[in-house]
Specification:
Blueprint (H helix, E strand, L loop, with lengths): L1 H26 L2 H4 L5 E6 L1 H4 L4 H10 L2 E4 L5 H4 L9 H12 L3 E9 L18 H18 L6 E6 L12 H6 L2 H13 L4 E6 L5 H16 L6 E4 L2 E3 L5 H12 L4 E10 L31 H20 L4 E6 L32 H11 L2
Parallel strand pairs: 1-2, 1-9, 2-3, 3-4, 4-5, 5-6, 6-8, 7-8, 8-9
The chain binds ligand G3I.
Amino acid sequence: MRKIVLILLGCLSTVLITSYTNYTSETIPLKDVFKGKFHIGVALNTRQIWGRDTNALKIVKTHFNSVVAENCMKSMSLQPREGQFQFRDADQFVEFAAQNNMFTIGHTLIWHSQAPRWFFVDEHGNEVSREVLIERMKNHITTVVSRYKGRIKGWDVVNEAILDDGSFRKSKFYTIIGEDFIRLAFEFAHAADPQAELYYNDFSMSLEGKRNGVVSMINKLKKQGVRVTGIGMQGHVGLDYPKISDFEKSMLAFSGTGAKVMITELDVTVLPNPRRNTGADINQNYEYKKAINPYIDGLPDAVEAKLQDRYLDFFRLFLKHHDKISRVTVWGVTDGDSWLNNWPVFGRKDYPLLFDRQYKAKPFVEMISRISTKK
Ligand code: G3I
């Protein structure tokens, strides 16, 4: 008899949990929760862009009012060989966004990473001159931005140009052109679509050095009359870094430049961090070891609770400063889609997003909507 009661109780709790999660994912759209405060966005992979992941698309259409392509608009994808543009995936992404009336973000025009090698060398393999690289940058930006003029509302014009200590990253763009490459990129983008919002986007933005470096770069650009509409704080964070107060300091400092602030690539890793790697530099990779992949059979309650607290703390912060924030975008639909399963160690199982591998909203999604409606 006791056994039957226990089984019945087990069934009942499953039914309750299932209906709770269904209720959460289907009837409280996050885009309604944050209406009038900020856009809530999500990054799409090519399976989603082409409609092959229908469960993910249901989530996207229900909860989000802004989208960004996770990979297919990077220069390596759009112009793998000089002058040979490949717009298939990007066109489909923009079409999907237009059909669903989403605030559409273009990611990213100038990024040292995922830039094809030809960009920086001539036919003999020698480094190109400043003039040639500027011309190539201009051609790339003009071609891409003009194609989606009026449909892509905001562009990550320059990505990750400042190092943690606030100095300029010594990328090929920087070493060949000098820091002016940033101004030029913004000017080319503005000329191609004067209405588009234009952003500077970077990771580890709560570090003091980077905060100061970005603020002084943006102030200088503004003095030069360059249109920079927004600053994107990527938001690849962990359970214990960065401090919310440091994140807040940066939000306020960036807002102080007059730019809109946006959280552009939010995810929260729960996995151990080899060598305290807290950035998002995709060139840093570490060897797989079983010991640093601890949650292959699911997330223990204690860690789930920490993840929940962390998400709630961040969303409390975003809501507190919603007048300064124009968008919060999560970097993927479900945990299974996340780049963090393969970085900085390939083949782990992470749980960094709002929806789990079964396409269910995590319980804290409901809690986020509750704190949002509280005065
Ligand atoms: O598409 C190929 C596939 O054909 C091939 O079989 C497979 C083998 O590894 O690779 C696939 O490409 C991968 C691609 O993601 C699509 O999954 C690349 O190797 C991999 O490097 C690439 O990683 C992306 C990374 O940027 C580099 O472009 C991540 O998905 C993406 O989440 C990440 O996003 C960046 C932002 O753009 C900028 N900020 C940091 C953020 C995280 O690194």
